[in-house]
Amino acid sequence: LQGRQLDLILTLHSHRRPVFLRGPSETLRAAFPSVASGL
Fold it and tell me: Tens digit of pLDDT for each residue in 1-34?
């Protein structure tokens, strides 16, 4: 879970907007397609 939280934090900083309002899986899929494919 910590790894996913770090990915979400990195996504938040990279987009500079409240990506947490979207589902975690959607956020990871949009920001890290290669990582999402492995989930």
Answer: 577 777 777 776 665 555 455 556 676 667 776 6
Q: At residue 4, what is the residue type? A: R
Q: What is the pTM of this model?
A: 0.26
Domain count, the chain: 1
Rg (CA), the chain: 9
Token pair belonging to 5 = 């939280």
Domain of residue 23, residue span? 5-37
Task: Report DSSP letters for the chain, one per residue.
Answer: -HHHHHHHHHHHHHHTS-GGGS-HHHHHHHH-HHHHHH-
